[in-house]
Amino acid sequence: MISYNEKERVFKLDTPNTTYMIGIVDEESFVGHIYYGRKLKEAEAGYLMRTGEPPFVPSKNNRERCSFYDCFPFEYPTGGVGDYREGCIGVRTVAGHAGSMLSYVTHEIIPGKPELAGLPATFGTKGDCETLRLVCEDKYIGMQVELLYTAFQDTDVITRSVKVTNTGKEHFYLTKVYSACIDMDNRDYDMVSLHGSWARERHIQRKALGYGIQNVSSYRGESSHQDHPFLALVDRNATQENGEIYAMNFVYSGNFRAQAEVTQFDYVRMTMGIHPENFCWKLESGESFQAPEVVMVYTDKGFDAMTNAFHRLYKKHLIRGEYKDKKRPILINNWEATYFEFNTEKLLSIAREASQLGIEMLVMDDGWFGRRNFDDCALGDWKVNEEKLNGGLKYLVDEVNKLGMKFGIWFEPEMISPDSDLYRAHPDWAIAIPGRPGTESRQQFVLDLSRPEVVDCIYEQVASVLRSANIEYVKWDMNRQLTDIGSYGLPADRQGELYHRYVLAVYQMQDRLTKEFPYLLLENCSGGGARFDPGMLYFSPQIWCSDDTDAVERLEIQEGTALIYPLSTMGAHVSDCPNHALGRVTPFETRGIVALAGTFGYELDVTKIPQEDRDMIPAQVAMYHKYNDLVREGDYYRIASYSQNHKYDCWQVVSGDKKQSLVTFVQVLNRVNFKSRRILLKGLDADKRYKVVFENDDSVEDAVYSGDTLMKAGLLVPNPWGDFRARLIYLAEA
User: Fold this and answer.
1) From CA 166, how far away is CA 324, in angstroms rounded?
2) Is residue 423 within 8 Å of residue 429, measured between CB atoms?
3) Residue of 547, 548, 605, 649 marked active site
4) 202 within 8 A of 127, measured Cβ to Cβ
5) Active-site residue, 547 included
6) What one-character-per-residue DSSP string does 466-531 give?
7) What is the pLDDT of residues 456-471, one digit of tens each?
8) Among this protein's residues, is 723 annotated catalytic?
9) HEC profile for 704-719?
């Protein structure tokens, strides 16, 4: 998978269908990017670095060294000495100087994949992947930079990360550390990114890439509702099935910047890493800084191929734990059913009805602790309110278990309310700028998790609750962004470390949680989907996709999410109508079908919904059990996009052996005086014959067609009567 041509000084990294090449040039051993694209047989493309044309390399034309720096395709560019494009690393010495330049020193090729200290990352063993450790240095600063590349054998993915070590005698400050860069020729690319806000996360945006810098970023302390740590440069004519795509996704849950820069020479520099805003890391002599990982995908076969490369990697090499390859229990969450108005008997009444309908878990959301009867107090006081939960938590859990159901609970461990016992005892435990009034959001502050005593206190409170009863699921929430970036626990010259130390502490807490309670199903959440990223998926196999559970709104949210992440990771529930976020009324059947594309559950008071809706739940439960293995494990294909055509949505999942498939068709708006829609299926075996069953439409008779016919000629889907109607179409080898 990885080889080194010593004579040509070229590294070649191969995945099943792609090649990535790095070259070492000139006497000063500059590290250059040669090629990333379709798989090459030979490592003979070093000429692409253009060192044989003006301005040549410094050893042949030192008078134009600056020009060389400003156009050479650096593998990991620096700054301050002549490359005026965006650099990947910023260093400030004790003397206040900022220039740096890296030279190759040595390398090793490692079977498997090393862990990244303190950080989530993809994993793989010998046989799964190989890793190139490429060591560079700036001897004038006393800085060593290790570039790590892993090539996977079973999917077209290359991952990258960076480790910086102070090998000198004096400390210095890192003001920027990106994790990946690709320098390449511009070929009239479009830029694809994901954007939104609370309740409308990860909407796909595609626009032409122009000269200058274009980026997406967050410095809110989380990967954010607004932008997403993903960027793709795509052929202007790229479709779902065809066209070149270069994509990056950041395995990190905090501030990020993903950027494309088109330069004066019509080159493109694509970078990704921790956002440099308010970042400054003091590195003492002998200390190292490990940057997070970037996942890179190249394909010339369009978005479907890109999507499935990400999906396969994350399902096999990122998600871990008890539920990695396991069906998740169907849960019912009481939040939209009761909000803060509940007690033991109310929760048990929901559980009794839900258990008879086949629902498998009750989740108790916000409001069970301290004096938490509204969202203005008690965060940080994680002790059961036994006036509300009369009989105590263990009694409630035991009673739910007697019904044959599991029990789950909600926490928001990273937050603190000004009106809380914890804040009154430790006001300095909140992130704050001393002397400046704090900026409240949802009438709460953020705990300073850079302080070990804060982490230990909160973890022990959460763990004590989990130890007290048979709790098998935790919803971990984070409902506000970071502001007032200051810590009472850090010295002045380390205040710029707070953002990153905060994220590292969240990872540490979740790592402790999953190790002490390995059977736990952990679902991350951040006001919905503000922290839906690969870093969180390393600890929790599913993430709450959005606080907007409306089935029509979810089409665009889930389409953008599934562009990168497996369907099994998307927390998706059937909620009440009129929908609590926007007031829309959609059929209960449609709500169930859209939620089947995710983890599937309910967010309503099952004792109060119309009998007609309640009667549908057993069939929806049966549908989940029938199809979840296929949805969770199969390959995903996008057939039509409601966000683009504004009329209907359609996606398909195909089993690995191509013996079965599930097509979901959602008619958002009906059409007058039109015939049926013809959809072209994907991913089937052209030589197999498939029985086609419209699961919830008795008007369509079962039929048998070849995969070849279904993919080339298509399948006719009759127009359902009315708006917001959905159909499930099941295909099985005949």
Assistant:
1) 38
2) yes
3) 547
4) no
5) yes
6) HHTTT--EEEE---S---S---TTS-GGGGGGHHHHHHHHHHHHHHHHHHHSTT-EEEE-BTTBTT
7) 999 999 999 999 999 9
8) no
9) EEEHHHHHHCCEEECC
Q: For residues 462 and 394, what is the distance between their CA atoms, to the nearest angstrom? A: 15
Residue 699: predicted pLDDT:
85
Burial environment of residue 496 by CB neighbours within 10 A (0 to 12, 13 to 18, 19 or more): buried
Q: Are strands 143-152 and 288-290 parallel, antiparallel or unpaired?
A: unpaired
Which of 138, 366, 477, 550 is labelled catalytic?
477
Rounded Cα distance, 265 and 127, in Å: 41
Query: Of the candidates 183, 192, 152, which has an alpha carbon nearest to the alpha carbon of residue 310?
Result: 152
Calculate helix-pair angle for 611-633, 588-595, nearest 10 degrees: 20
pLDDT > 70 fraction of the chain, expressed in percent and rounded: 100
Q: What backbone phi and psi angles, to 5 degrees, belong to 77?
A: -70, 145
* pLDDT > 90 in the chain, percent: 99
- Please choose, from the candidates 203, 281, 215, 301, the residue with its C-alpha nearest in 3D space to the C-alpha of residue 250: 215
In angstroms, the CA 571 to CA 536 distance is 13
Q: Which tokens hold the place of 664?
A: 């979901």
- E strands within 245-387? 245-251, 256-262, 267-273, 281-283, 288-290, 293-299, 331-333, 361-364
Contact, 729 vs 717, CB < 8 A?
Answer: yes
Q: How many CA atoms lie within 13 A of 457 on its CB side?
A: 19
- CA-nearest of 75, 89, 255 to 177 is 89
Q: Which tokens hold the place of 404?
A: 């044959």
